[in-house]
Each structure stands twice: as C-alpha cells, then as structure tokens.
Amino acid sequence: MNSRERILTTLQGGIPDRVGRHESIWSETYSLWRTQGLEEGQDIADLFGFDFHGLPWMDMSLRLPAEVYEETDEYVIQKDANGVTRKDIKGESGHTPHWIDHTVKTGRDWFEYKDRLTPEDARIPANIRDAYEAGRAKNRFVYYGGIEAYECSWPVFGQVNIFMLMMDEPEVARDVFETYTDLQIALAQKVLDMGIDYDGVWLCGDMGYRNATLFSPACYEKLLWPAHKRMCEFFNAHGKPVILHSCGKIESLIPKLIEAGFAAIQPLEAKCGQDVRLLKETYGNKITFFGNIDIRKLSGTKEDIEEEISSKVPIAMKGGGYIFHSDHSVPPTVSFDNYRYAIELLEKYGRY
329-344 pLDDT, tens per residue? Predict the structure, then answer.
C-alpha cells in the first residue's frame, strides 16, 4: 500500500498493511536533530515514512488591517487580522500569544463584524495547488487542514468572552459557530471546484484542558455539536473523512464526536490521563484513534520508549483503527536517536 491507500483504508474502517504514522515536530527540535545526525535538507516525512501531506490553511480571519505596535528581538506586539492585540514571543515554539485586547468581545460586536466572513477567493492560499501536487507526487494522504468553528471563534472573542457568550447568549454563540462553519464549508467547496481533490480533512479545535473539557458535554451538544455534525455531513458526502485534533482531556465528548461523523480523533494526550488501550476497549472501531504516544516516554530511556510502544500499539491497532503519533508534538526533549528508535519499534510492533 502507498500512504494514501493506507490512511484511507484505516479511516474507512479497514485493515491496512501497517499502522499509519505522522508527527508534529517543533522547529527547535529540528535544529537539535541537525546536530545529532539529521542531514540538512533531509525530508523528515521520507526518512520516517510519514503518510500525511497537508494543504495550506484557509484564511478564516475577519480580514481587518493588521498593525505592528512594538517589535524587539524577543517579541512583537501587534493587532492581527481578527482585530486582536497580542504579544507573540519570537523564536520559540509551544507558546500561545499573550492576549491583550479584542475588537470583538460581545454579541453586539459580533453582529457588527460577522458580515466580513465571506468566502472570497483571496482567502485561499496562492500556493495550494503546488502543495497538492507535491503531496500527490509522493502518494501521500493529502488533507485539507484548518480550524473548526470553536477554534475560529475563541481567539477572536478571547476565551473568557466566548465562554460568557455561550452561557449568557447561547443563541449568539450558536450563530458564531454556524457562521464559521458556513465559511469553512464554502471555502472547502471552492478548493474542490479548483480540481484539488484532497483525500480527507484534518481540522483543529481544542476543547479540553488537563482535567476535563473546557465546557460541559451538554453545552457542546447544544451549541457546537450541530455545527460539527453539519460540517462532517458535508465532507462525508464528498467522500472526505474528517480527523479532529482536540487537545486536552476530551474523552467525555467521544460519543457525540462519533455521532457527528468524525472519522478520527487526535492527539489523545496521555498527560491528561487518556489511554488508547482503554478507549479501544470502550469504542472498538467506531472511530480511529490517532496518537496517545506519551511524549514524556519518548523523552526518556530506550526502555521507556519500548514499554510505551509495545504496550499500546498492538492493542490500539487490533482490527484496524489506529494511527501512530505522539500525544501532541515533539519538543527538543526528544533526541533524534530516541525518535528514530521509536519508529524502529513501530516497524516491529505496527505491522498487520
């Protein structure tokens, strides 16, 4: 099987030749690895046999004028295209911005600005066709990537403001989520109409933190789930399975994610107490599990790495329905040798 066939087979409930694989690697980690044996210019996806190839994301912003207020060697303070004033740290991965102020804070503000969210062609990256052809040339699973409705909205309002909106003005919050879903669907259709026939979809929407979901399952079902369901119905009708990236402890949402029509969930953070072995026991092949390899173990000894992979992968892959990935991303605590060893173990334990 090539990568495209392997991932499609997995997401469609079949059994591939081996466990699919992918990874998210920090830029600092690449820099470290180049001092540890990774050759300059080496395609990491070729080296480790990664199966995915992403298209550049659509512009989902309000397209407001951006402005830089202050810039140093360490940081930049700017107003972005969503009207958000933010401080971004330079040269370090893994940092969320420091949110300073928001143009859109309330329902009234939302209705003043929402009409800017129209699916004009300028929202589609100019290099999308080149990216598509590069993925096709490698026979990889080419996915349409981006952010779903909640991930679109909370940076615009700020997390506290979007939570207050969900509690105090749920009908407005529902309108926010439906509006962003309309935009994502319209842009995805435009990309298809361009002849860019991507294989599937991978959307990000972080709905959890370390101990639980950011809002209750009941709140999710009432306000956000209808938008997720409609989005999945659109993509599934076009034969495009949808992967959801959602950080934090989101296992309480899994039944509704399955019902919405998601084909896979990722990254299943082990740091939150989630365990793919238990999830597989509970849900079987109702959804593909993608990730859950504890980055703390990958940062440890060879024995730690083998225990993690040998104990999880054979159970998670049983009957299909598993794709290998760390439980979020790879920081520079993981050496090149350790990650290379993890892939060697995956070759050993991850074949059907």
Answer: 999 999 999 999 999 9
Query: Which of these, 199, 251, 222, 261, lies nearest to 52 by C-alpha position?
Result: 199
CA distances from 275 to 257, 271, 282, 340, 349 (A): 17, 9, 11, 23, 18
Q: How far apart are CA 105 and CA 164, in angstroms?
A: 10
Determine whether domain 3-60+104-349 maps to CATH 3.30.2090.10: no
Q: Where are the domains of the chain?
A: 3-60+104-349, 65-102
Q: For residue 92, is pLDDT > 80?
A: no
Q: What is the pLDDT of residues 109-163, one digit of tens each?
A: 999 999 999 999 999 999 999 999 999 999 999 999 999 999 999 999 999 999 9
pLDDT computed for residue 154 by the predictor: 98
d(CA 8, CA 22): 14
Cα gap 142→239, rounded to integer Å: 13
Quick check: helix, strand or coil at residue 183? helix
Mean pLDDT over residues 239-249, rounded? 98
The DSSP H or E segment spanning 314 is helix 302-316
Q: Which residues contact 164 (CB under 8 A, 6 or more apart)?
A: none
SS3 annotation, 282-307: HHCCCCEEECCECHHHHCCCHHHHHH
pTM above 0.85, yes or no: yes
